[in-house]
Amino acid sequence: MLTILHFEETMGKVIEVYVKNSEVPVGIEHGYYLISPGHECTRTPVTAAVMEKVLPEADRNVLELLQVIAQQKQLKVRVYNISTLRGKLRAQLRGVKKTPTIIFRDHRIDDAITKEKLLSVL
């Protein structure tokens, strides 16, 4: 399999972080559905949950910490959301099993991500 790397990635200037957002219900929406468009007599009431996408606290904290450190060290952060098809495929190619996971050059951090661990790898 041929992998094309961007210039920045070959120079080790890009930090990859893998996160996964979740959908949580934030309310209920009431409305009507027309079985036959244009005919009000076919109007049927429907109720649906209103969902919002949120990052788990651990993912959010790591992302915030990583952005601060990356800015100090003039590195780029590339975020992959494994809830999306693109993010899921990228994670499978890189062997990511859980979130949050950080990959920089040959280093991988996926458990107990702390500032000290990040600084030692970067």
Estimate percent helicity.
25-40%
Rg (C-alpha, Å): 21 Å
How many domains comprise the coordinates?
Answer: 2
Percent strand equals 35-45%
Shape: elongated
Mean pLDDT reading = 83
Provide a compact summary of the structure.
The chain is built from four helices and six strands.
Give your account of this protein's structure.
This protein has two domains: 1-20 and 55-122, 3-Layer(aba) Sandwich (Glutaredoxin); 23-54, no CATH class. It is 31% helix and 36% strand. It has four helices and six strands, in the order αβββαβαββα. The protein has helices spanning 7-10, 57-73, 85-94, 115-121; strands at residues 14-19, 22-34, 43-54, 76-81, 101-104, 107-109. Mean pLDDT is 83; it is low at 1-10.
List the helices and strands and how they pair.
Elements: H1 7-10, E1 14-19, E2 22-34, E3 43-54, H2 57-73, E4 76-81, H3 85-94, E5 101-104, E6 107-109, H4 115-121
Parallel strand pairs: 1-4
Antiparallel strand pairs: 1-5, 2-3, 5-6
What tags apply to this protein structure?
single chain; 122 residues; alpha+beta; 2 domains; two-stranded antiparallel ribbon; 4 helices; 6 strands
